[in-house]
């Protein structure tokens, strides 16, 4: 015959082992849920990372287009400024060539007759 103490210990051990298997099952279920949750988090992180990369590429292209447009306008204005300066310089040179007298005999525009007429006046 088995003593009541041994029966009590056997019952206790069975209860503990049953509770342990339930606890293990519960932990396993929680682990699976946490793995699914982690998997979802990884997928979301990857998607958001992809979105950030796409946004960065699009944003950089927009900024580059703005910069290129600004540079083109700036260069156009600079060329217009140079053109205006060249026109002013050409007009001034035309006025000076009509009024001025070349006195250097080695210059290509030297005219001895014009020089002598200017001295007579």
Keywords:
about 120 residues; mainly alpha; 2 helices; about 85% helix; rod-shaped
Description:
Residues 1-30 are annotated as: Disordered. With 121 residues, the protein is mainly α. It is built from 2 helices and no strands. The protein has helices at 4-99, 112-120. The N and C termini lie far apart (159 Å).
The secondary-structure element order is HH
Number of discrete helical segments? 2
Question: Could you tell me how far the N terminus lies from the C terminus, measured between alpha carbons in angstroms?
Answer: 159 Å
Broad shape: rod-shaped
Spatial extent as radius of gyration: 49 Å
What fraction strand?
Answer: under 5%
Percent of residues in helices comes to over 70%
Structural class given helices, strands, pairing? mainly alpha
Q: Any idea how many domains?
A: 1
Low-confidence spans: none
* Largest sheet properties: none
On the 0 to 100 scale, the average pLDDT is 78
How many beta strands in the DSSP annotation?
A: 0
Region (Disordered): 1-30
Biased composition (Basic and acidic residues): 21-30
């Amino acid at each position: 015959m088995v003593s009541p103490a041994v029966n009590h210990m056997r019952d206790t051990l069975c209860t503990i082992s049953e509770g342990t298997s339930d606890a293990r099952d519960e932990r396993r279920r929680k682990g699976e849920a946490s793995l699914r949750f982690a998997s979802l988090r990884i997928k979301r992180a990857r998607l958001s990372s992809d979105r950030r990369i796409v946004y960065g590429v699009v944003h950089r292209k927009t900024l580059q287009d703005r910069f290129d447009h600004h540079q083109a306008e700036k260069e156009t204005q600079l060329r217009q400024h140079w053109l205006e300066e060249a026109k002013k310089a050409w007009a001034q040179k035309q006025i000076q060539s009509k009024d001025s007298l070349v006195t250097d005999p080695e210059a290509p525009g030297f005219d001895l007759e014009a020089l002598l007429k200017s001295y007579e006046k």
